[in-house]
Amino acid sequence: MKSVKKSAVLFFITALFLSFTPRELRIFASWREPVRVKHAIVASQHELASKIGVEVLKKGGNAIDAAVATALALAVVYPEAGNLGGGGFMLVRFKDGKTAAIDYREMAPQAATRNIYLDETGKLIKGEGSSTIGYRAAGVPGTTAGLELAFKKYGSGKLKWSELVEPARKIAQDGYVLSYRLANLFKAYKESLERYEDSKKIFLNNGKFYEEGDILKQPELAQTLGRIEKNGAKGFYEGETAQLIAADMKAHNGLMTLEDLKNYQPKERTPVRGTYRGYEIISMPPPSSGGIVLLQSLNMLEKYDLRSMGYNSSEKYHLLTEVLRRAFADRAEFMGDPDFANVPTKTLIDKNYAEKRRATINLTKASKSSDIKHGEIIGRESMDTTHFTIVDADGNVVTNTYTINDLYGSAVTAKGTGVLLNDEMDDFAAQPGKANMFGLIQGEKNSVQPKKRPLSSMTPTIVLRKDGSLWFAVGARGGPRIITSVLQIVINMIDHDMNIQEAIDAPRIHHQWFPDEILFEPYGMSPDTRTALEKLGHKFAAKPINIASATGISINEKGVRFGAIDSRSDGEAVGY
Ligand code: GLY
Fold it and tell me: Which residues have a catalytic role annotated?
């Protein structure tokens, strides 16, 4: 009894102390705690999609089943990025430690050739006909095929495909309540969406616009989902859906044909793996550059004591910038679709190679991107977006990023399908050596070729504890800023002892070789830190900007699951 009393007093004193601990004594930027559950959790950028995923888990489905249902639901409730008309990457780690990486990235249509986005004078085409908007910007979507592959090969077998599709179909048919953010985002994209009849009809209420609280119904999308529910991926790539997409393409000088749709294939890849301070990092291989750039950066950073530098010191930001400058220079030179170009993955993620790249970093002076070239690789090797993360009750984890590239993709909704198509063709080097919409310079290995997959920056990543158990899984949306965000989240967890919510919310920076400038966030960098970096020779972007947005889940040693959604975006972690 005495000891019970003692514990109660101790508990009271601790609680009192914590409640008076001033905010500035805490090491993190946010008071928000991650969502904490005992069994299973889904963290996605829309509450309804997370809830649908959790229902699947409660019915006995595994994390892969839940991922399929969540992804399909996001295609309905998160139209800016959730999709049937795009593609992505799913990284899985099973409870027995095995892994799988599903590449369902879009493929270039057969008619897409190297100079298809250049005019007769050799200049990049702007507007209709370009790689960024309209019918010609769309690659052949991979989402439905990728989800079907995941379900057939790795699903629990306890739930039917139709049970995973039906919740999304029903919301598309019955509608859902629009948030303030989504209603306004449609208006913000008016200029591009109103160019295309079905996009204008569905997302701009035929020009009358939506307000917060309105119900958005998507009957054509419900019918498309109905065909997918009944016929699996064939309900998208063949039959009525495919015919509608191909006919609309043909009517608007698009590239994609019935044949392109029928020939789409998702692929399984081998994840890239490395270590950082003894923790194992598992991430996405090409055609995403994410895993390689992440591991190469971590390999260079490992030599430095980031912990003692402090998470937002000028010393650390200088190092990060120099490391990213080098890793992105390599991205431009060496990376592309591995089915078309020899990507020297093994060398790029090798610690000795990183050491050679790191050795050129001067700790007291910024280098110029124009002076930084790609590394030397001797010999040949054999050969944005929304993210969600799911951990089931058995400890299987899925970390999935998929996208239609720009918000609302190409802005084209294929007539009669409700399917908003991607503008992923802009992730190719439409003109090698010239910047794409993200300002990224890319090389010949990522030039446009029929049936090729454009190089991505998506970085779904899993980190294991030193004993090999699952620690956390994370990913983000935001083009090339995905990689730098995941990198800083990993560092925040490992070097700065943040929890998953703190690690995701903490301010971050971005550098991608060219343009030679540091991107920084609103209220994310103190004036004296900036001055110190400028004194070293760094340049800054004209204005602050939010750098990507992430979702993640961590698990503690007792198996408690913690879900976190970035404060930079909507979403909810839901579990039980
Ligand atoms: N569309 C952005 C990316 O894949 O990196």
Answer: 385
Is the same domain home to 278 and 264? no
Regarding the beta carbon of 457 and ligand 1, being less than 6 Å apart is answered: yes
**CA nearest ligand 1 atom 1, residue:** 405
> Is 120 inside any structural domain?
yes
Instruction: Report how many domains make up the chain.
Output: 2
My answer on whether 251 and 292 are in the same domain is: no
Give residue 21's pLDDT: 42
Q: What is the DSSP string of 407-461?
A: TTTTSPEETTTTEEPP-GGGGSBSSTTS--TT-----GGGB--TTPPPPB----E
81 CB under 6 A from ligand 1? no
pLDDT at 22: 41
Whole-angstrom Cα distance, residue 105 to residue 229?
Answer: 22
Mutate to test the pocket of ligand 1, among 385, 410, 423, 477 (most ligand atoms within 8 A of CB): 385
Range of the structural domain that residue 510 is part of:
272-384+458-556+567-571
Ligand 1 centroid–CA 289 distance in Å is 9
Same domain assignment for residues 231 and 286 = no
Same domain, yes or no: 298 and 283: yes
Whether the pLDDT of residue 23 is over 50: the answer is no
| 5 Cβ contact list (under 8 Å, min separation 6) | none
Q: What secondary structure letter does DSSP report for 206?
A: G
In terms of Cα–Cα distance, which of 95, 101, 97 is closest to 40?
Answer: 95
* Contact partners, residue 145, CB within 8 Å, separation at least 6: 104, 233, 236, 237, 264, 265, 266
Q: Are residues 176 and 237 in the same domain?
A: yes
**CB 459 less than 6 A from any atom of ligand 1:** no
Beta bridge partners, 215, equal 177
Summarised one tens digit per residue, pLDDT across range 141-181 is 999 999 999 999 999 999 999 999 999 999 999 999 999 99
Peptide bond between residue 515 and the one before it cis (omega within 30 degrees of 0): yes
Is the pLDDT at 10 greater than 70, yes or no?
Answer: no
Among 126, 86, 147, CA closest to 424: 86
Mean predicted confidence (pLDDT) in 320-328: 98
